[in-house]
Amino acid sequence: MTSERSIMKLLRAILGRPLLNLLGVLLLAVLAASTVHAREYDDVIKSQYIEFAVYRDFPPYSYLKEGVPAGIDVDIAKRIASELGLEARWQWLTADETVDDDLRNAIWKGSVVERKVADVMLRVPYDREYAYAQDGYGLPRNDMVVMLAPYHKESWQLVRDIKKTGEVRNLAIFQYQPIGVEIDSLPDFFLVGTYQGRLRENVHHYSTVYGALADLNAGKLSAVAGMRSQLEWGLPNKPSNFDIDDDGLEALGRKSWDIGIAIKENYRQLGYAVEAVITAMIDSGDMAKVFTQYGVSYELPSTYELDAE
Fold it and tell me: Which residues form the Solute-binding protein family 3/N-terminal domain (predicted)?
């Protein structure tokens, strides 16, 4: 309430007490109406349910299968809820322009339309540099949330039809061969700009990576760039001439990144409880089994790799 006290003190100096009383009541009413409160750990346990924010139509992580929630993140969330003795509920999140926007909509403020927040958000980039990033005024960009409990390492990779690309392992071949990408993804920007733009004419854009994979299967493309998990899930019966790796992407700004959870900054007890379940799943091998069920390779987050060294 520090900001509210500051505003009231300023109004007192300008207006005096008579008008202050009326304006103060109106101000506090507006602030209360505009604030969406996350739930403390005890509130979550008492309610007997926990609500997870997951991305809408985002296979293999979170999607509806015949009207039923499914996906890697959905299964992880169900396991977390079960271990805490709670029912899992869902807040389906439509990706906004940035992760900052998604965190605001899902965790600490709520969207303009629904004004509702979830208890936990899944599939959040777990990165110390990002977590402590500052805005243009030198203020923390993400001080309203805490990111913790990394549970997977994701990466950008290429799937090639080696009948068309041969043994060439760099990107030069795509000066002559077509490659598909999801529009406005990092590989899209990278491929269009690399080699002084000489690949641009052969970079084909799709609304999703799965549209590109369909054309790869149909022989219309020589390769597709995307997230490894999506490439693997989208090719359940991968032909022997399709090869998935990150060769040629060495100059990409960030080839891999850890994935974790986010909670409201002042409700860390809930985050620690969720983190304990995730850690146990990783240590027991159950986390890897979740990914395997979807035909996706599991890779330990960087935190675990450092601990093993």
Answer: 51-294
